[in-house]
Amino acid sequence: MTDRLEAQFAFLNEADRLKSVLRATTLCDGSRRENSGEHSWHLALYALVLADQAGPGVNIDRVVRMLILHDLVEIDVGDVPIHSANGAAHGSEATLVAEARAADRIFGLLPPDLGAELRALWAEFEAAETPDAIFAKSLDRVQPVMHNIESGGGTWTEYAVTAEQLEARVGAKIARGAPRLWDYVKARSARFFKVSA
Amino acid sequence: MTDRLEAQFAFLNEADRLKSVLRATTLCDGSRRENSGEHSWHLALYALVLADQAGPGVNIDRVVRMLILHDLVEIDVGDVPIHSANGAAHGSEATLVAEARAADRIFGLLPPDLGAELRALWAEFEAAETPDAIFAKSLDRVQPVMHNIESGGGTWTEYAVTAEQLEARVGAKIARGAPRLWDYVKARSARFFKVSA
């Protein structure tokens, strides 16, 4: 039993490092960049509060579990901003390989039964094929949009993002799992984008 | 529907402020004080990882939900360190009244049905009478103990805490919901306390 607790706490103490991984997005008040630990908390709260936006068959408790775990690999890989490298870095093959290796190491700290269970939830989130994972991904995309709206443009200004790029990189993924949320934040974000043509 | 989303996002944006509420406890590496947003994430992860320490009848998904919500009132009240004012400030009547008022305001931002549901979960946590709440409280107490162990003494040094005070203020509450966790961290923390007598 003590060996098992040793492994559980080794993982929990390692997870603490996620609080030192900084994202591109700032807090709503723009005072500083958000870290991936507090971001994960905020997303879990998003899931509880926006559960009525989930499609049929979505289990919110599984969504919450995925969102709690979803960024742990960033302890090794860091956050890859969605609009960086003109949108090409996020989801690149190199990033995916590095994240899988990080998942092996980090979930590997746990007792094997528990590590396999939590790693499977993380992999399900990453694959974005099940209703739970699709909804979780929508929330992960909508929160930075809301923070950019609140902070006055945020990473859209920093990376000179166009409305078309936002639609392609972010909007389509929000709309896939939560179409009304995309309609809502799109309308609220319109004032940050110049009308093209 | 738009009015409902307005209320949901007003709450979620207000909740963002929890990331700026600082606790007495530091990160494991001692580099800075922890904020209550990232602390809430870490506790939700504790619940997923230490679920096998919960007593019979505990629903881990409800525990996770409580832990996500449990510190939101600190947006108005701030964190009241457990060892501050020689242990007398935390849980004082004045603090409880202020926290209830904060809960009214913050959960009151939500649509009424949802606000009532989440406020009830918060109140259940605070009352610490149900198996879910008792286990959630144990996790909330064990995490700072582990951080003090990792950071080399932390708030025990800062507030000159004795082993007896730790047992009374913290240990009894951990042991109530997760006795083996208290045995484990008590043994690991022993080197920070002088032997009395």
UniProtKB/TrEMBL annotation, chains A, B:
GO MF term (any one): 5'-deoxynucleotidase activity
Any single Gene Ontology cellular-component annotation: cytoplasm
Residue intervals of the HD domain: 15-182
Keyword Metal-binding set for record: yes
Domain of life, source organism: Bacteria
InterPro entries found in the cross-reference section: HD_domain, YfbR/HDDC2
Positions in coiled-coil regions: none
Name this protein carries in UniProt: Hydrolase
Organism in which the protein naturally occurs: Cereibacter changlensis JA139
Record lineage: Bacteria, Pseudomonadati, Pseudomonadota, Alphaproteobacteria, Rhodobacterales
